[in-house]
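Bump. Still looking for PorT family protein structure tokens.
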Amino acid sequence: MKKILLSAAIAVLGFTQINAQNDDTISSSSETTFGIKAGYSSVALKVSADGAGSATEDLTGFYFGGFAEINLSEKFALQPELVFGNYSEDGESSGVLLLPILAKYKANEEFSLLAGPQFDYLTNEEDSEGLKRLGLGFTIGAAYDITENVILDARYSFGLSDRFDSDIDEFEDFDIEARFSYFQIGLGYRF
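Sorry for the wait, here they are.
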């Protein structure tokens, strides 16, 4: 599954780069730029069971990765990203690979709104015991261009898919759901 996600991200980024290089008539509103990003991140796992209530566990950490900004018009862009998040608690770390594919609306020269689906994949097999490793969420956020190259962005992604592995025999009689939510705030650098 890691290979599939990585291949998909490379294909999207590679296609946009090849397309940009082969088209000599690209205007400034339809160019593609690339960048790197890093910052603070937190993840929350919310588990609920049969109307008996719910419990949430929060972990904090950091993220880093890369992005492409494919300008579709003066006001709209597509922003696929490939980001690795590392979360730790009591000396133990968990890794998550995040693949958001965001629509970007440029409200003005500096401020943008972001929204779109986000796939996440738990990279450590032992951390995913009892959970499905691949999940889907929906992300909303905002970005502010501090300079032409430096970007500040914040976003929240709430889990849409149930991550609980219902194949575990000891829990087969219960209606249990588990969902991941992510919060990120950080800086990016556009090349």
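The beta strands are 32-49, 54-71, 76-89, 92-106, 111-122, 134-145, 150-159, 176-190.

Edit: fixed formatting.
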